Amino acid sequence: MAANPTLENAKLSRSSPQSPSALARMWQGLSATLARWSHAHDARRHLEHLDDHILRDIGFDPCDARGEAAKRFWEPYTLRFTRDR
Questions:
Q1: Which of 25, 60, 81, 84 has the fewest beta carbons closer than 10 A?
Q2: pLDDT digits (tens, 9 = 90+) for 36-82
Q3: How far is it, in rounded angstroms, from Cα 53 to Cα 29?
Q4: What is the four-CA torsion angle of 20, 24, 28, 34, rounded to 10 degrees?
Q5: By CB neighbour count within 10 A (0-12 exposed, 13-18 middle, 19+ buried), where does 66 fall?
Q6: What CA–CA distance (Å, rounded) separates 77 from 44?
């Protein structure tokens, strides 16, 4: 007697408890992206309000920091510490 194909397909389509479903992975990726964008937005707003002498004290070139603060939240960070302190 042949196995019930509907039952076999149902067994194969279930994801195992160890591996998250595609929808769960997509949600995790979206959540991580939104968190990264939120952090970038907040950090850039803080950079806008720092004085030049404070930026130099913490190791950033003021001109570079202003350029970083002007970026959109989805753009990657390029601000690096300066070596001359």
A1: 84
A2: 999 999 999 999 999 999 999 999 999 999 999 999 999 998 888 87
A3: 38
A4: 170
A5: middle
A6: 10
